[in-house]
Design brief:
The chain is mainly α. The chain folds into three domains: 65 residues, no CATH class; 92 residues, DNA polymerase, domain 1, CATH 1.10.150.130; 165 residues, hpI Integrase, Chain A (Orthogonal Bundle), CATH 1.10.443.10. Helix content is 40%, strand content 10%. The protein is built from 13 helices and six strands. The strands form two sheets. The protein has a three-stranded antiparallel sheet. A hairpin with an 8-residue loop joins strand 1 and strand 2. Helix 3 crosses helix 5 and helix 7 packs across helix 11.
């Protein structure tokens, strides 16, 4: 009988025994380098197999033995990544810092899986994440592929899983010559405003255009980080300069943010059922639908490109643009690494567009 991973097993012991059927569970023991070995513990013995399976089922429904890794204790996708990273960094053949930075970015592309139990993830879950980024370059997809394959090889080697799901995945990307990466024209922006709340989720596109946020950054902004009275939000990811940055709100989009704001919800952006959007579901069910209805050809990040273009055309302060967009200024010798701007200054600049 095939049982789920981490469920335990029933085995028949050799020799002449009055109770030959043993209920056995296991625990993965990890050493300081991240290497894992399996430790077995025998719970009980029975004369008939059905009695042993009944005991195992009852055990999994609530009984606790410290040595057993139950489903509830099995690692999430994020924890598995940390386990693999710890193991990989313990090896003599080291990966460069720049490659690790690419891996961290790739790992964050799977953000909707971070809290999922690793053993519960299916091939389709991974494929949806990859499909959501098929407009990206080969470099991006290659990094995502490398992270996935390494994680699944590590997990299989250490008996967290039985099968490597990466073997059936399809990896697609867009060549740089094919990428659109074009700003929304002034006429297109007017069209978006004219259809606000007539076509679902147009407001999300407008918020990105007027904040410079990446799609994933906007979708991950939590309600507690939205400060409507002070006209700013806190959010961002990907780089050190981009994480947890101040995002000033242009006066034009404050009503849009207010309309989305619900203090009882964890995230600012939710679907019509009140559930949090993941990047994949937003792309497949909303952004692409909007573009189709408007007959526009844009990528999700074009809102961010548009913001940069609008700010530049409006003569906004260069340092403010970089701070708002989360760009690093480490190599900016004219502005200096430690340049700071007040919220009032950021609001003044963002309201120039």
């Amino acid at each position: 009988m095939k049982l789920p991973n981490s469920y335990g097993s029933v085995i028949k012991l050799g020799g002449k025994r009055r109770k030959p059927y043993a209920v056995r569970i296991s625990k993965l023991v990890e050493d300081d380098t991240g290497k894992v070995r399996r430790k077995y513990t025998y719970l009980a013995y029975f004369s008939k197999p059905e009695m042993a399976y009944t005991y195992l089922a009852e055990y999994n429904s609530g009984a606790v033995v410290p040595e057993h890794m139950k489903y509830s204790d099995s690692p999430t996708f994020a924890k598995m990544y940390e386990k693999w990273k710890k193991y990989r960094k313990s090896l003599k053949n080291q990966i460069s810092d720049s490659t690790w930075r690419n891996y961290e970015i790739a790992f964050n592309h799977f953000i909707e899986l971070h809290d999922r139990k690793f053993i519960s993830i299916r091939t389709n879950d991974l494929q949806q994440c990859l499909n959501a980024y098929n407009h990206k370059s080969q470099t991006t997809i290659s990094s995502m592929r490398a992270v996935l394959k390494a994680m699944y090889q590590y997990a299989k080697l250490n008996e967290y899983i039985d099968r490597d799901l990466t073997e059936g995945l399809v990896y697609e990307w867009t060549n740089s010559t094919e990428q659109i990466h074009d700003r929304y024209s002034d006429e297109e922006i007017k069209t978006l405003w004219s259809k606000l709340y007539q076509i679902n989720n147009v407001d999300i596109i407008l918020i990105m255009i007027y904040t410079g946020l990446r799609p994933t950054e906007l979708l991950e902004i939590q309600t507690e980080n939205v400060h409507l009275d002070e006209k700013y939000m806190v959010g961002g990811m990907k780089t050190e300069a981009g994480k947890d940055r101040i995002i000033p709100l242009n006066d034009q989009i404050i009503p849009l943010v207010k309309n989305r704001y619900d203090a009882n919800k964890k995230y600012l952006i939710n679907n019509k059922f009140g559930n949090h959007y993941t990047y994949g579901t937003y792309m497949d069910g909303n952004f692409n639908t909007c573009m189709g209805k408007f007959k526009m050809k844009h990528l999700p990040h074009d809102g961010r490109h548009t913001f940069a273009s609008l700010m530049d055309s409006a003569g906004a302060n260069d340092v403010c643009i970089k701070l708002i967009m989360g760009h690093s200024m480490k190599n900016d010798t004219t502005k200096g690494t430690y340049t700071h701007k007040t919220l009032e200054e950021l609001l003044t600049e963002v309201n120039k567009i």
